[in-house]
Amino acid sequence: MINSINCSVVETVGDEVKNLKEGDMVIPTYIGECQECENCISGESNLCLTYPLRLCGLMLDNTSRMSCRGQKLYHPMGSATWSEYTVIDVNYLVKVDPSMNPAHASFISCGFSTGYGAAWKEARVERGSSVAVFGLGAVGLGAISGAKMLGATKIIGIDTNEMKREKGEAFGMTHFINPSSSDKSPSELVKELNGGMGVDYSFECTGVGPLLTEALEATKVGLGKTITVGIRAENFVPVGLLSILFGRTLKGSIFGGLKITSDLPIIADKCIKQEFPLQELFTHEVQLTDIEQAFELLKQPNCVKVVIKI
């Protein structure tokens, strides 16, 4: 995973900005939190209605603040962070302690925090429960870490990359499954590790369509809960109907259900206190001018996070 969102330093602020100043260290985010709309006050959703996720590449007023040679440029995910400079609405920024490692701050701008939040805010993993995590990239490792922090006693990581076993164990994984070494399905292998029963919670972090049904099937009949956070290339994926009819719950999640004002600072504080082994994510680093190299690095089996520096 290339770190698409980042950690930045404020260059200048607009006249109406009161809570930030030049030189502040910030994390750009792709959702906001007004703490006043129906979703914010519900306590059940992080999808603010006042400062929503912008997929159109434009600011809230449907204009762009960037251009090149007279041509309008767009703000991907509202933040345009694969750039040296960007303009962003202040409501999509989180100020962090300048003592924080910038690379670690960038890891919690997306990726790791998405998985951690999925366990913490979406699944609300209970102490003593069992968990299966499909895909051990930064998101999956975050889900493992969140499950561990919440007291899950059996945490099963599933990945076809054998090198992810060590990474998973560093974050709290108790069992590892490599489906490519067996003729059985991933869900069957999960049940074998749990006495023939499914797990209490599963997290689909790969974006691979067929694994969504596998993640559902890996949970307990009647009680299992699956959180899907993996981004898929296709908009529609088939889901096994019986997997749902047998009482399991499937829940989608953006940014792991985290609210940027209420929740992200808590994770940032845990990072500063070194409660997560985030250095395990930092496997490669390239300059922004060499960003094409970053895409090649993603093909290497030992790659977890590529940090892009300016």
Task: Report what the structure shows.
The protein has two domains: about 10-110 and about 260-310, Medium-chain alcohol dehydrogenases, catalytic domain (Quinone Oxidoreductase, Chain A, domain 1, Alpha-Beta Complex), CATH 3.90.180.10; about 115-255, 3-Layer(aba) Sandwich (Rossmann fold). It has ten helices and 13 strands. It is globular, with a radius of gyration of 20 Å. A six-stranded parallel beta sheet has the order 8-7-6-9-10-11, sandwiched between helices. Strands 1-2-5 form a three-stranded antiparallel beta sheet. Helix 3 (about 110-125) packs across helix 4. The longest helix has 12 residues, at about 110-125. Strand 6 (about 130-135), helix 4 (about 140-150) and strand 7 (about 155-160) form a beta-alpha-beta unit. The model has no long low-confidence stretch (mean pLDDT about 90). It is α/β, with parallel strands linked by helices and about 300 residues long.
Keywords:
310 residues; alpha/beta; Quinone Oxidoreductase, Chain A, domain 1; Rossmann fold; 2 domains; 6-stranded parallel sheet; 10 helices; 13 strands; 25% helix
Described by the principal axes of the CA atoms, the overall outline is globular
Quickly give the CATH architecture of the largest domain: Alpha-Beta Complex
Largest sheet: 6 strands, parallel
Give the strand order of the largest sheet, numbering strands 1, 2, ... along the chain.
Answer: 8-7-6-9-10-11
* Structural class determined from secondary elements: alpha/beta
Could you please say which CATH topology of the largest domain applies here? Quinone Oxidoreductase, Chain A, domain 1
Taking all residues together, what is the mean pLDDT?
92
Would you count the extended β strands for me?
A: 13
What is the succession of H and E elements?
EEHEEEHHEHEHEHEHEHEHEHE
